[in-house]
Amino acid sequence: MAKLSRRQRKKEQRKQDQETDPTSPWIGMQTGLIVITILSIGMAVFVAWTVIPATSTREGILWGLGFGAGIWFVFVLAFAFNRFVRGKRG
Q: Ramachandran region of residue 87, left (φ > 0), alpha (ψ -120 to 50) or beta?
């Protein structure tokens, strides 16, 4: 049997890892939290920026905070549901 190159061995190992646990997360928890933080801040700023010309500054900021908090609310509900259904791992 011919020897496999390093790249081929890594590819085979990756394939075996994927086959053994298809339910493993595709990104880490810390990376996910960073992405959600950036998105929620960006969405809050964007909503506030677009609402302020139509209403008062106070109302625009409140709408922005509401949308930013809404993203976190959906994340927490989805996370809690996932933990409830699948159980705590690790």
A: left
The answer to whether 67 and 44 are in contact (CB under 8 A) is yes
> How long, in residues, is the chain?
90
Tokens standing for residue 5: 């190159």
- Do 39 and 69 meet the contact criterion of CB atoms below 8 Å apart? no
Tens digits of residue pLDDT in 29-76: 899 999 999 999 999 999 999 999 999 999 999 999 999 999 999 999
Q: Is the dihedral of CA 29, 31, 36, 21 positive or negative?
A: negative
Q: Where are the alpha helices (DSSP H) in 25-89?
A: 29-51, 57-86
Q: How crowded is residue 53: how many other Cβ atoms within 10 Å of its Cβ?
A: 8
Integer Cα distance of 82 and 51 in angstroms: 34
